[in-house]
Amino acid sequence: MHILVYLEERNGQIRKPSLEAITAAKSLGATKLSAAIVAANASAIVEQAKLLDVSEIFVVDEPKLSNYSSHATNKGLHQIVLQSGAEVIIMGATGRGKDLAPRLTVALDGGYVPDVTQFSLDGSQIVATHPIYAGKANAHIKINTKYQVLSTRPNLWKASKDAPASAPVITNVRVTFEDKDFTEKTISLTLAQGKLDVSEADIIVSGGRGMKGPEHWNLLEDLAGAFGAATGASRAVVDAGWRPHSEQVGQTGKTVSPSLYVAVGISGAVQHLAGMSSSKTIVAINKDANAPIFGLVDYGIVGDIFEILPALTEEIKRIKAH
Amino acid sequence: MNILVGVSHVPDTTTRINVASDTISIDKTGVKYILNPYDELAVEEALKLRDLHKGEVTVVSVGADVAKEAIRQALAMGADKGVLVKTVPSTSMDVAKAIATVARETKPDLILLGKQSIDFDGMEVGPMLSELLDWPAATVVVSLKIDGSKATVEKEVEGGKETIELTMPCIIGAQKGLNDPRYPSLPNIMKAKQKPIQEIVVEAPASLRVTLVKLDKPEKKRANKVLKVEGNASQMASQLAHLLHDEAKVI
Ligand SMILES: Cc1cc2nc3c(=O)[nH]c(=O)nc-3n(C[C@H](O)[C@H](O)[C@H](O)COP(=O)(O)OP(=O)(O)OC[C@H]3O[C@@H](n4cnc5c(N)ncnc54)[C@H](O)[C@@H]3O)c2cc1C
Ligand SMILES: Nc1ncnc2c1ncn2[C@@H]1O[C@H](COP(=O)(O)O)[C@@H](O)[C@H]1O
C-alpha cells in the first residue's frame, strides 16, 4: 500500500498535524510512504521534509501560490497523486486539511473519511473511525473506491520524529496554473499574537459561568500559565460577551482532544462535553458536587474557584519546579 | 440577487444517541429533529442579502420526505421557495452532487451553507460543491461583504482569521458570529405553509463509495476521583497536582 501524506505549511514551517499524519500512515503498514508539498518557493519546506521518514517527496513549487488558494492547491495535489501512483492520501484534519481533502476526493472520484480518531486494518483494508453526533457515537468506515482520502484529528497521534532510512527522492511535478484557478485566494492571515489556539494546545484550562465575570479571568490565566496551557470557554461566557468565540469549546465551538482539559466553573452540559470528551485526562473544579461534569472526570475538586484556583496555581508551579 | 441555501435536518443537540440493533444506524425512537443550527445562520444571511439587493431565496434539502420540516422552518424564517431532492444520501458527495444539480438549473448568484451539519460533522459539502461546480468557496465564514461580483470574507482559522476574496458566483459556509438568526414570527409560520416545496427525484449512486462497517458508543473509563475534603483548598490542590503528576503523568 503506497500512502501519500500532504504536508501543510504555515509561516515556512511544516505544521505538527502533518507530522502526526505520518505516524498514522506508518501505523497502517505502508509499503511505500511519500510526502506531497504544494506551495510557493517550496525549497524551505522541502529541506524540512528531507528529515522525515518518507522515501519520496513530490513537490509542486508555484509562485502564484504565495497567496493560498484551496482550489489551486487541490489542482497541484491532484497531479501529485496521479504521478505518484499512491492510492491512499492522508492529511491533518486542520482547517485547511478539512477543506482540501473533500476537494481532492471529488478530483479523484474517491471516498473520504474526515477527522479520523483511530485506524485499524481488516486484512489489508483500512477501517477508519470518525466520531459523529458530536462524539456521541463512533462510525467505523471502509472506503470502497480506488482512491482513499483520510484526514486525521490533530493531537491524537504523536508527531513523527523518525529519520528516513535513506535520503528521500525529490520529484518535481509540473502543473500549469491559469488565472481561473485563483478565483478564490487568501489576502491576509492575522494571528492573535502569542495566544495558543485551543484546537492546537496540549493542555487547556476552560472557564464557564462559574467564573462570575470577565474581570476574574486572570485567575484562570494564571493557572493556564502554570500549566503552559491555552484558555478555553463555554458558550455561556462567549454569549455573555466575556470571551471571544474563538475560545469556545463544544458543539458549536471547537472540538479538542488535549492530553489535559481543566473545566473551571463549567456545569458540563451535553453541548460542552461534545467538544472535549475525547480529552485524555479531564479535571473539573466546581462548587456543586452534583454538577453533571463530575460524571465524566478523571479528577475533580468540589470547591469555590476563588479559593481553589490560586491554590492550584501555586501547587502546579511547585510540582513543576522540581 | 438569487440565493440558494442548503439546509440539513439533524437530531437535536440534546438527543441521547443510542445505536440501533442493526449496529449501523441510530435508534430513531423519540429523537427530535431540527434545522441544523449552522444552517440558520446561512438562511439569515440569505434573507439579509435578499432584502438589500432584491431577489429570491430558495432553500434546498437533500433527503427523505421528513427533511421538508427543515425546509418549512427556513420558509418560516422568510425564505421564498423550497426544493426537496428526494434521495437517501449515503455520503456528502451525494448531497453535494444533488445541490450542484439544483444550482445548475436555478443559476443562483450565491450558495450559502452552514459550516457543518452536526450529525456527521463532516464539513465536506461546501468544498465538494466548489469542485463540482468549479465555483470558488470559503467555509467557516464570520463576515461577508459583497461588492458587485466580488465577495470578501473573514474566515476563522486556528489561532486567527484569514481574509479571502472570491469572484461570484461563489459558495459560503456560515460560522457562528456571521449574524444572529431571526426567530420565525407567527404570521410567517402560517405563510410558510402556503409556500411551494418542489420535489426532485435523483437516483441513488450505482455503487457505495464507503461502507459503514459499525457504529458504536465511545467509552473511556475515567478514574472519577472527586476530592470533596471540606475546608482546606491548598490540601485538595496539592492532592490534585500530585495525581496529575504521578498518576495521569500529564505534567
Ligand atoms: C444548539 C446548541 C449549541 C450549543 N453549543 C455549545 C458549545 O459549543 N459550547 C458550550 O459550552 N455550550 C454550548 N451550548 C450551551 C450549553 O447547553 C450550556 O448552556 C453551556 O455550556 C453552559 O455553560 P456553563 O457551564 O459555563 O454555565 P452553567 O451551566 O451556568 O454552569 C456554571 C457552573 O459553574 C458552577 N459555579 C458557579 N459559581 C461557582 C464558584 N464560585 N466556584 C465554582 N463553581 C461555580 C455552577 O455550579 C455551575 O455548575 C449549546 C446549546 C445549544 C442549544
Ligand atoms: N442533506 C443535506 N441537504 C442540504 N444541505 C445539506 C445537507 N447536508 C449538509 N448540507 C449543507 O452543507 C453544510 C455542511 O454540511 P457537512 O458538509 O455535512 O458538514 C450544512 O451546514 C448544510 O448547509
Topology diagram in text:
The complex is a heterodimer of chains A (322) and B (251).
Chain A: E1 2-6, E2 9-10, E3 13-14, H1 16-26, E4 32-39, H2 43-49, E5 56-61, H3 70-84, E6 88-92, H4 95-108, E7 111-116, E8 118-122, E9 125-132, E10 137-143, E11 148-152, E12 169-172, E13 184-191, E14 203-207, H5 217-227, E15 230-233, H6 235-239, E16 260-264, H7 270-276, E17 281-286, E18 299-302, H8 305-321
Parallel strand pairs in A: 1-4, 1-6, 4-5, 5-12, 6-11, 7-11, 14-15, 14-16, 16-17, 17-18
Antiparallel strand pairs in A: 2-3, 8-9, 9-10
Chain B: E1 2-6, E2 9-11, E3 33-35, H1 37-53, E4 56-63, H2 68-77, E5 81-86, H3 92-106, E6 110-114, H4 125-133, E7 137-147, E8 150-157, E9 160-167, E10 170-174, H5 186-192, E11 197-201, E12 210-216, E13 225-227, H6 233-247
Parallel strand pairs in B: 1-4, 1-6, 4-5, 5-11, 6-10, 7-10
Antiparallel strand pairs in B: 2-3, 7-8, 8-9
The structure holds flavin-adenine dinucleotide and adenosine monophosphate.
Q: How is the main sheet of chain B built? A: 9 strands, mixed
* Helix share, percent of chain A: 25-40%
Named once each, the bound ligands are:
flavin-adenine dinucleotide, adenosine monophosphate
The first-to-last residue Cα distance of chain A is 47 Å
Distance between the termini of chain B: 56 Å
Mean pLDDT of chain B: 94
**Nearest-angstrom radius of gyration of chain B?**
22 Å
Provide mean pLDDT of chain A, rounded: 95
How many β-strands of chain B, per DSSP? 13
Q: Into which percent range does the helicity of residues of chain B fall? A: 25-40%
Shape summary of chain B: globular
Describe this structure as you would to a colleague:
In chain A, 27% of the residues lie in helices and 30% in strands. Chain A has 8 helices and 18 strands. In chain A, the strands form 4 sheets. A 7-stranded parallel sheet of chain A has the order 7-11-6-1-4-5-12, sandwiched between helices. In chain A, strands 15-14-16-17-18 form a 5-stranded parallel sheet. In chain A, strand 14 (203-207), helix 5 (217-227) and strand 15 form a beta-alpha-beta unit. The termini of chain A are far apart. The mean pLDDT of chain A is 95. Chain B is built from 6 helices and 13 strands. Chain B has helices spanning 37-53, 68-77, 92-106, 125-133, 186-192, 233-247, and strands at residues 2-6, 9-11, 33-35, 56-63, 81-86, 110-114, 137-147, 150-157, 160-167, 170-174, 197-201, 210-216, 225-227. A 9-stranded mixed sheet of chain B has the order 9-8-7-10-6-1-4-5-11, sandwiched between helices. In chain B, strands 2-3 form a two-stranded antiparallel sheet. Chain B is globular and about 65 Å long. The chains are: A alpha/beta (322), B alpha/beta (251). At the A-B interface, helix 3, helix 4, strand 7, strand 9 and strand 10 of A face helix 3, helix 4, strand 7, strand 8 and strand 9 of B. The structure holds flavin-adenine dinucleotide and adenosine monophosphate. Flavin-adenine dinucleotide binds at residues 208-210, 234-237, 248, 250-253, 265-267, 269, 271-272, 275, 286-288, 291, 304-305 of chain A.
